[in-house]
Amino acid sequence: MPKIFIVEDEPSMRLGLKDNLEFEGYEVDFADNGEAGLEGIRTNQYDLVILDVMLPKMSGFDVCKTVRKEGNTTPIILLTAKGEEIDKVLGLELGADDYVTKPFSLRELLARIKAVIRRTGALKKGTNKAKIGRIDLDFSSYNAEESGHEISMSHKEFEILHYLWENKNKTVSRDELLKNIWGQEVYTTTRTVDNFILKLRQKVEADSNNPKLILTVHGIGYKLVINAE
After folding, report:
1. Beta strand pairing status for 171-173 and 221-224?
2. I need a surface site. Which of 1, 44, 93, 195 has the fewest CB within 10 A?
3. What integer best gives the mean pLDDT of the chain?
């Protein structure tokens, strides 16, 4: 049974989500402020976190940023009453897996939850290990190392690398990455994809300014070049 952690300060919203998710068969924990949410994510294993942006004590953006810096790859869906483009872009670039704007329908949120859990489950069930440039990757445990030293990598970065690895030596379009990594309905742009590729190059390339592994195919997308030995 998937376990979901709700971090939401509005009592009616929190309890409504809890009741409906439990009805759908999920196990649910909850917290009502950012600090408690951060501690819960640190100390428990969840399949998904539903994280409100506007929280007392610590914002959802800060919670997301902190757990990703600490190397925690638990999938996160952000909830917010805001609809401005900059907020959505910021949330995704901080490492959130999806973004739902209040007010939303329960049906929409459930669809997003299922999509994120499905994508992350596929990541764990696919190719387990790979070596890309300087980095040794274990996709099943979301672990990345260079010469035995752990490399901090977000959940979304693992998903992108996994998809590129599964399609190595093939050109993958930006639209294909948007569809398969972020989902068709989630708000994001090709600029977000480009920013993630830039971060990945800094981690796997010997010289990120002169990439030899993750190549740009101009006007289309990217190609992970892995030469057979």
Report:
1. antiparallel
2. 1
3. 83
